[in-house]
Amino acid sequence: MIRGGRSYVTSPPSFSNDAKKLLVCTGNTVSVFSAATGLQITSLEGHTAPVTTLIVVPAASSPAQKILCYCWTASLDGTVRHWDFSGPELLKTIDAQLPIYSMVIPSLLSEPQVQIDKRRELSGKLVAYVSVEDTSVVKEGTKELRGHIRRFNLAKPRIPRGDTLKETEEPESIVISPSGEFFGIRHKCKIHIWDVPSGGGSRHAVSRKMTLHHSKFINAFAFHPTERIIAAGDVTGRVLIWRGFGNRKLALGNQKKKVRAMVDLDNAGVRGEDDAESCTTWHWHSAEVNVLNFSSDGAYLYTGGREGVLVVWQLDTGKKKFLPRIGSPLLYFMWSPDPTLSSVVCADNQIHLLKMPSMEILRTISGIKPPPSLPRMYEGLASTVAFDRSSGIAALCTENYCVQLYNLLNDRGISEIQVCERNHQPGDEITVVVTAVALSLDGSVMSTTEVKLPEDGIGGLVSLKFWVSEPHSKTFTLSTIVYEPHRDAGVSAIAFHPTRSMAVSTSFGGDFKIWVCNSDKNQADKDSSWTCHAVGSYKKKPMTAAAFSGDGTVLAVAVENVITLWNPDKNILLSVLGATLTPITKLCFAGTSEFLVAASHFPRPELSVWNASNLSLSWSYGLRIEAVTSAVDSSSFAVLALIPKSFRTDESKENIFRSRDGAILLFNGSDPKPVSIWTVMKAKGGSISFLEGDKSQLRLAYVNGSHEYVVFDPNSDESHERSAVDYDGLAGQEETGDAGYTSLYGQLPDYDKKRMEDAESLATPFVSSERPWETIFSGSTLNFPPLQKLCAEFFESLMEKRTAVVE
Q1: Are 182 and 230 in contact (CB under 8 A)?
Q2: Which of 38, 148, 325, 397 has its CA 20 to 30 A from that of 549?
């Protein structure tokens, strides 16, 4: 089983002491990457909830000590762990009994570690300040303060309640000064600062506190490495510099006398009674400031935010220079022990390693980018994930109108394709939506559709694009653009032929078009452009889905709630399958078999399996399906279904689902009973696909709505987290269908049985009604019985039955 797609940007990363490794919080684990190659080396596994804090134990400046590889981690699972990440090896686990959102250990900075000092731990001087969430004091329905800043002694395996320094509505992130003398939190428009008492771990040591005020909400702040200077960024884009903070409230006794004369001075820019000499404001950012960090010598301040621009301020003069066009909002900026190397973390799940001071991007550690924000009208209709089954590569639509190619087997980003050109700008309204991406079976061709949204009802444009893979690199170049491929209507689906350079696009406007590559028409011609081969429609109704059969000889197109079968070469309508209850949104042939899988959404969701050879409904379930996939060389297929809320909230099944909202069901051809069921999280907006690069092993890939994924062998017992799910209750009532008339219009009444029952119940001669045809022919024509039964019933009603006379 392969898991990947985790977020790299939930917490700040940290460099090793030799600056050759970068440690990154990735969900419940810590991933260790090589700074030279950007590849993952190892991981620290043991936490059972997301890791929120990562602290590398600093070593002395001697080269021999820089090889030490120790770190502390804290997690929402309520534990603090001590690691040797060169192994990796877990050295110690401490139970804090509460979810930890942030942690700092001041003594690690004030006294760099030459080795793991056991004597310090035993003497109780290794003290941590943590931000925890304590819901035990919160009464239901009240707004109590659940965020607590507490002091813990890490020498004990089970941490007691600890001393509470501050309570807030929600847990806040703790920021510590590079010297380890001060730490603080931001809370709305305030910065609360404490000094670290010289008593270390003594129970009687008291941290003194001061507060700085601002008129706007503060997003981030940082301490100067050597002087009493604090920089903060607010939600409006302003950067504030407080100088000389804490000279009164946080100063030692002999220092208080020297600054006593300054109390009554008019401190420029300082609000009220704040303990600071001055406050300076800089304003360049147009939106909130997320990144603040001083250079190691304190001469420069680095800031960043939603603009995707890293700004370098000279602290004394206020002059600035920029690293523009990073392409995504900035979240963190971290220095390494090597002054020529730093990292910047972006909201699109990428970490850029920078060469300093030129700020050149050396390499990028790229995770799966988050899915794009779609307008409400496209939610549930866009197809934003496609799979290359042969290589295990996924093509995912992301922000900024990009398609990212990601290797699911290696958990690595490969390349990005800019579907339409756009520079990142904060607060931009969505003007273009990439509604679909599709890959050919061999991964050599990609197709995308995009919609330029109209402004005030004017200027909308639909584009269909074909991209061709480069021979030696896994990226794509644009081959063909088709503007308004279906007149003014949007493209509802794209599907590729399994063996030829052929594709089909369907339209809500009531037609489908078959596209072929010019090189497919003439093998000697290497022209990679695409042209329209044929156009088809059925009663001018919207066409919502399409799929080719396993051998490519049949094209299935969904026309609202019926399925039409076509010959794609001759563009001839072959037959029509019976109607479903609601419009079909997804179609898929079950490998090389004769079975066709259809999924419908609203208003009544349905999963139905049809037999294309005898045009009959095999079976159906009342399930809402997010994705369908099938194996190429067998009749197996899998669906991703949303579990009904009523079924998940059943108390008897609470332990089975554990907040999971979806299920993957594996079927084999016409058998309505699933072979396997796996419950999953974040199923809405998810996708699944079989991966068949290795012919000896069939794999199933699941990408959830947040672009996290898992790849597993569906036939392996190790990967089966098969919950004891009652699939009958999960799927609702199973429906099995019959051929012909019954599959279209439902079961007919049993007229022969009814006639026998009526004859047995008659005690008197039958008297025909005066106008019997009025009741016989009443009702919908769709419910009429076969002609021979209808005629027999009609003529019988016109005749009188005579009772037998016994002479």
Answers
A1: no
A2: 397
444/447 Cα distance (integer angstroms): 10
Query: Where would I find the beta strands (DSSP E) of 518-553?
Result: 530-536, 543-548
Compute, in degrees rounded to 10, the torsion defined by CA atoms 290, 291, 292, 294. Answer: 180
Cis peptide before 88 (omega within 30 of 0): yes
Residue 391: count other Cβ atoms within 10 Å of its Cβ: 17
DSSP-based three-state secondary structure for 262: helix
Distance linking the first and last C-alpha atoms of the chain: 88
- Quick one: which of 688, 666, 640 has its CA closest to 385? 688
With beta carbons less than 8 A apart as the criterion, state whether 418 and 476 touch: no
Backbone phi and psi for residue 498, each to the nearest 5 degrees, phi listed first = -70, -25
The CA distance from 227 to 499, in Å, is: 69
d(CA 277, CA 270): 7
459: helix, strand or coil: coil
User: Greater confidence, 124 or 392?
Assistant: 392
Report the candidate in 494, 487, 492 with the shortest Cα–Cα distance to residue 467.
Answer: 494
Which SS3 state, helix, strand or coil, does residue 378 take? Answer: helix
Residue 56 half-sphere exposure toward CB, CA atoms < 13 A: 29
- CA angle centred on 161, ends 155 and 165, rounded to 5°: 100
Contact 175, 221 (CB under 8 A): yes
Structure tokens, 279: 């406050």
**Which secondary-structure segment (H or E) carries 255?**
helix 253-259
For 659: left if phi > 0, alpha if psi spans -120 to 50, otherwise beta; the answer is left
Residue 320 CA to residue 598 CA, distance in Å, equals 59
Residue percentage of the chain with pLDDT more than 70: 78
Alpha carbons within 13 angstroms on the beta-carbon side of residue 187 total: 20
Separation CA 139–CA 144 (nearest Å): 7
Residues 487 and 498 sit within 8 Å (Cβ to Cβ) = no
Tell me if 284 sits within 8 A of 320, measured CB to CB. yes
- Of the candidates 312, 307, 306, 305, the residue with the CA atom closest to the CA atom of residue 342: 312
pLDDT the model gives residue 121: 45
Nearest Cα residue to 714 out of 678, 749, 687:
678
Give the SS3 label for residue 253.
helix
> Phi/psi zone of residue 246: left (φ > 0), alpha (ψ -120 to 50 degrees), beta?
left
Alpha helices (H) in 507-581, listed in sequence order: 518-521
Helices (H) and strands (E) in the chain, counts: 11, 57
Amino acid in the structure at residue 169: E
Residue 629 exposed, middle or buried by CB count within 10 Å (0-12, 13-18, 19+):
buried
Selected residue with higher pLDDT from 588 and 647: 588
- Specify the pTM: 0.81
Contact, 612 vs 577, CB < 8 A?
yes
With contact defined as beta carbons under 8 Å apart, do 532 and 494 qualify?
no
- Report the alpha-carbon angle 724-727-729, nearest 5: 105
Largest CA distance in the chain: 140
Query: Which two structure tokens, joined as six digits, stand for 575?
Result: 């037959």
* Cα 54 from Cα 100, distance rounded (Å): 12
Tracing tokens 């700085």 back to the chain, one arrives at 212
- Each residue's pLDDT tens digit, 435-458: 999 999 888 999 999 998 887 777
Three state DSSP letters for 27-53 = CCEEEEEECCCCCEEEEEECCCCCEEE
pLDDT band at 649 (very low <50, low <70, confident <90, very high): low
CA distance linking residue 93 with residue 213, whole number of Å: 38
Kind and range of the H or E run holding 763: none
500-513 tens-digit pLDDT: 999 999 999 999 99
Cβ neighbourhood burial of 520 (10 Å; 0-12, 13-18, 19+): middle
Q: Residue 105 is encoded by which pair of tokens?
A: 């250990």
Interacting residues of 173 by C-beta distance below 8 A, sequence separation 6+: 101, 102, 131, 185, 186
